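Teaching assistant's notes for section 4

Start the section by putting this record on the projector. Ask students to predict, before seeing the second block, whether PXMP4 protein will look compact or extended. Collect guesses on the board.
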Amino acid sequence: MAGGGDSLRALLRAANALLQQRRYHAALAVIKGFRNGAVYGAKIRAPHALVMTFLFKSGSFREKLKSIAQATYAHSRNLAYFVFTYKGLLAAQSRLQGKKIPFQSFLAACIGGWLVFGDNNPINSQIIMYLLSRILFGLSRLAVAKGYIPQPRQDPFPLLAALVWGTVLWLFEYHRETLQPSLQSSMTYLYQDSDVWHDVSDFLIYNKRTDSK
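Reveal the predicted structure now:
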């Protein structure tokens, strides 16, 4: 028993010594990036999938749990693969060119995005739309910071909020098929299901009646 404990401690010491080696830092960073991508993807997707599945999807309890697990796995896997690919390509470019330049990050991420997130499915679509909204905000702030567009005299956010909500509700009412399915489900619950009720039970307690009355 003691021999097994000694072997484990020796293995841990060897692993810790390896992790301190600067020459392996780039390769180890790629591996840890894979780990962090997998963990972060699971943390982000699991609660979202749990809420959306039990709110809007039909099926048995087991089917719902399976759907949550599949969505969580897909998000976790894709993010892990992307971080691994991005950091690996970034390290390779830096090593080949002898220094880091901004274009390396762009190119590595483009390749990773094409390889990992190029499949048009619900999980990838949600991730890309999430990033797109933040990119637009980031580029707008960068344009102001660089002087490409003047600093607004008033906060433009109220106007942006009005245009975003006006556009999305117009699309929902008249071109619903253009919106992502999960957004359609959310808006149906908020704006369409609230037009229908029969008595107090499905007016205040439930969204829809489950009986055949």
